[in-house]
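Most newcomers find our protein records easier to grasp once they have seen one. Read left to right, the backbone structure tokens trace the chain's path through space. Once this layout is familiar, the rest of the handout is easier to follow. The record below serves as our worked example for the rest of this section:


***
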Amino acid sequence: MTRRGFIFAAVLLAGAVHLAAQKRTALDDYVSAPDENYKYELVNTAKGDGITAYVLDMTSQAWRKPSEVDRHLWTHTLTIIRPDTVTTDTALLFIDGGGNDGRRPGVADPRMAKIATETKSVVAHLRQVPNQPLTFTSDPFRRQLREDALIAYGMRKYLETGDPLWVLRLPMTKSAVKAMDTAIAFLAKQDGGTKVEKFVVSGGSKRGWTTWTTAAVDKRVAAIMPMVIDVLNNEVSMRHHWRAYGFFAPAVGDYIELLTTEMGNPRMKEIAKIEDPYEYRDRLTMPKYIVNAAGDQFFVSDSSQFYFNDLKGEKYLRYIANADHGMRDTDVLESLIAFYQSVIDKKPRPRFDWSFEKDGSIRVRVLDKPAEVKLWQAANPQARDFRKERIGPTAYKATTLEPQPGGEYVANIPKPERGWAAFFVELTFDSGGKYPHKFSTGIRVTPDELPYADLKRK
């Protein structure tokens, strides 16, 4: 794949650095604004097998006024995991969820510890993004809002008021930026000092979205690995969602009222300008490993067609067959480690390209020889719907693809007699490390027909 060189500017602990020539947005302004409420405190130190975990309480910011919300100070558990041997000044920031109404974890998450020990790098594990549950005085039902319900409420308030600070992606992104500030400052003075200058950022779902927006505003981000947030270019993607299903999937239920009544509203487009990673694609030139579930219950399986080709710089896609939004019982962790390790070691990653051809096939051109190439395919005779919950846990079947005489790989499947079929190509490469690189093409659906008309705003 095409590569570009990158020169990283001096690390600014205040974060939120971006190119002056690019137009500032409300996201830039909010993240870069000083906040006297920011602080952190070490509350526990736990020794493990080859690691030391420092558990910090971090206050990232004040969001909204105390008269508007029951929790205006955003607090987080930030666990900084330092392996006994650190060989790089690049760290992983993993953005996670969880509530502020639970117990503080006292030890390192085993997955994060695994990443730290196997890569000999620091891992910063940030929780409670967003802070939740939150209750708003303007909500007549005084609900305790979490996750998508919380984000949707903020969007509704923006539509009502025009105040961009209601957009939840702003404080979520600032939380991640302050976590990087904290990790750098804390490690510099802890037990002799550990130098961290750059970060690879990752997270799933809403935290995957925050991964994108963090990279858009902070030049300390060397690479990103967003997971299961297959909805960049949001309005186009959600219109496709409706035309594919004829309804909005239950998983996006918290947004249905907004989608059915406000899609096409100019103010919804204003929200996209603030928070949609697609709007920041000129900034997002760092290496990107975009990991999606082929059976995600939130997003239509061929949604990458609306953004991937428009992304700039080094980019890789991976759809995981027979996985849904939770990505359970998959090798996603090992795939993340392989990509992260390549960034740390500054190793070149596999070079290949792919395209959807006019004859309905997927064509893959490789410069570096893959260890294995598979064609994955699944069928649904009733609907253009490949959610795992709809087609079953083993619907995608794999066959080995052999190269053409010219070295290319071509995948094609017959049009089904009834319904639709989906297919994609998965490539496995030797990474030179413990785990292989796994990448894929986008998912292609045949026949290339949408069964429902476009959604009309009510």
